[in-house]
From TrEMBL:
<feature type="region of interest" description="Disordered">
    <location>
        <begin position="710"/>
        <end position="736"/>
    </location>
</feature>
<feature type="compositionally biased region" description="Basic and acidic residues">
    <location>
        <begin position="262"/>
        <end position="271"/>
    </location>
</feature>
<dbReference type="GO" id="GO:0000506">
    <property type="term" value="C:glycosylphosphatidylinositol-N-acetylglucosaminyltransferase (GPI-GnT) complex"/>
</dbReference>
<keyword id="KW-1133">Transmembrane helix</keyword>
<keyword id="KW-0472">Membrane</keyword>
<dbReference type="Pfam" id="PF13692">
    <property type="entry name" value="Glyco_trans_1_4"/>
</dbReference>
<keyword id="KW-0812">Transmembrane</keyword>
<keyword id="KW-0808">Transferase</keyword>
<feature type="transmembrane region" description="Helical">
    <location>
        <begin position="14"/>
        <end position="34"/>
    </location>
</feature>
<feature type="region of interest" description="Disordered">
    <location>
        <begin position="223"/>
        <end position="271"/>
    </location>
</feature>
<protein>
    <submittedName>
        <fullName>Transferase</fullName>
    </submittedName>
</protein>
<dbReference type="Pfam" id="PF08288">
    <property type="entry name" value="PIGA"/>
</dbReference>
<dbReference type="Pfam" id="PF01553">
    <property type="entry name" value="Acyltransferase"/>
</dbReference>
<dbReference type="GO" id="GO:0017176">
    <property type="term" value="F:phosphatidylinositol N-acetylglucosaminyltransferase activity"/>
</dbReference>
<feature type="domain" description="Phospholipid/glycerol acyltransferase">
    <location>
        <begin position="81"/>
        <end position="175"/>
    </location>
</feature>
<dbReference type="GO" id="GO:0006506">
    <property type="term" value="P:GPI anchor biosynthetic process"/>
</dbReference>
<dbReference type="GO" id="GO:0016746">
    <property type="term" value="F:acyltransferase activity"/>
</dbReference>
Amino acid sequence: MSVLSKAGYYLRSIQYYTLLLSVGFLATFIALVATACGRRFDTDYYVARTFYYIAGPLMGWSFDVEGEEHLTHLEKEGKSAVLLGNHQNVVDILYLGRIFPKHAAIMAKKELKWVPGLGWFMSLSGSVFIDRGNNKSAIQSMKLAGDEMKRKKKGAFYLAIQSGTPIVPVVCENYSRLLKKGSYFKTGTLKIKVLPPIETKGLKVPDDVPALIEKVRGQMSATLKEISQPAPKTSKKETPKRSSSPTPLLKESKHKSYQSTDKTDVAVDAVPKDAEEKDSKLAVALIEKRMISDFFHPNVGGVEGHIYSLSVELLRRGRKRVGVRYLAPGLKVYHVPFVTLASSASLPNYLMFLPWFRTIILREKINLVHGHGSLSSLAHEAIHHGGLLGVRSVFSDHSLFSFDDSVGILTNKLLASALRNVYACICVSHTGRENTSLRGEVEPERISVIPNALVASQFQPTAPYIPSAGDNSITIVVISRLVYRKGIDLLVSAAPRICAAYPNVRFLIGGDGPKMLDLLQMRENNQLQDRVELLGSVRPRDVNDTLRRGQIYLNTSLTEAFGISIIEAACSGLFVVSTRVGGVPEILPGDMVEFARADEDDIIRALTRAIETIQSGSHDPALAHQRMEDMYSWASVAERTEQVYRRVMAQPVWTPYERLSRLFSLGPVFGPILCAITAVQWWWYLLVCAVVPESEIEVVEDDWDAGRFAQQRPADAPSKSHSQDAAEPATAAYPV
């Protein structure tokens, strides 16, 4: 996007906010006059229309409205209704000004009450201010990226059902072709469609609220896709399309394996086909790769396990992996002597890693580096330094991050600086792909989706549930870090209600963290010492035995890019109940999981459905294990990752000018700063080369039999699980 386009965006944004503030002060006068004339509840109508007729022409935005008769019909008959619109950003006020009816009140978050001008008139007009932070589930602050339309808040639906009034959905076309944050702010016409009223008579609170929410959201989502036009293309390459499967990471035909890196979903156009075919054999022969991350064994976790398992399978396929001690089978690990912060993460540093990086690259004859983790400073620096040595780079992102908190803002800036010069990205889910594309400002066609996996033989299925006169208990298992983002508040709220409703249900909770105190208090306050068992930290080798003690696995995470603990539980034969967040809906077929929204009431509903499923005997643990064994394989993950490597190796190495140009495009302030850092890195690299010439670095020669190792079975790998981030040495089975 050109500098002029960006400048136009910021100028027009200033113009819009100036108009909004000006009309906000004018609205106070309108509210006073309307109140004096006895038309207080028409104040919002007058103010909305005033803003539309002033700001619309000045901003060059207009709207074509379809279905407006649904609003006028209600107004003529004097009927009440709840209007529900799709929220996109602050420009929504403009389209609301076009369709806002008379005698209506606004429900808004209480923070708007204190905005000068706007808050004054809203107070005078009878607006209803909602304290969204006072939610018993404490969910509102967790905002996720990736949805085309955000999940609806429940307040409007409770209001509609309790008052017996219909809901009128109002859908505005996606702004993307006219407005993109930080890029452009164009003029044009957008479509608005008012849908027919949805009756709520006869519905009850809270039982019918989830179904009503899904019905309204389904209609609005379908309408949004119908009326929205695609955003202008910024690249000649076509963005890969998402699979139409309801579980898009699974094959649409048999639901037995991932479809995320087939010709439809992977960025196959990232390299011209003829160039790829021409260089494919050369690429296969030359790829000597290095995994880089702050997170690796002896710590145990999802990223650590992913790096280890992927490296083992790539070794099996004939790729070299380097890493100060050896992990079987032949995986070498270099530990850099840096001081770490929390969770083994190191401080960002653009210079100090370079001498070690250069030595390892030259010693091991590496020509491709693969970084893992958005919070890994080593991965970011390796991508930066790789360009100095002519080494191509790939990056894998394993997590979701928000856009509006301090951690997200700082992390996203660092991520964008690294991914600007990465040749390809890999994400573990489609939701993660969208999140990384937005956070890292990466072209979607350069991001492939390749899932996590597991060794199915390490997760044997539990016995089928057979109730008896002596024992008909059902155990719900939870294995998780006990932290806020894992939704432990939901577990604390739901467990006592489930125990009260089902005397034969008990909870088995493994894990440790700051929320352990909340669980202890919940168990004590409700006298559930014999119904809720708290195990504390669970060793990785004990995870399968713990899972086999139950029939249902509960995941209450508020954000999850993939959810490897879920597939481990499913492979152990448990029926899964999970919050519908992040990439979780993509990983299991619908008959193996019951989804819930991230609130207490829907968690209760989903658990009730799961308990009924177990009691009916319709869930077969052995069949679930077999299906997971067919779906997930590290060999398949390694094969697909290798395809990404081939495409990367077929691309030409970027010149210093190309790298600096890409960094400079990150913004008028951040871009030049990164270019200056790159220049300093270059001088530092020349100094390192002068002090330690390449001729003094001894090259490592391989003497192990890769062919013999390739014949070993994946089941020979050490048993690990990623459900619990417990610290246990990963090399115990393989003495150095």
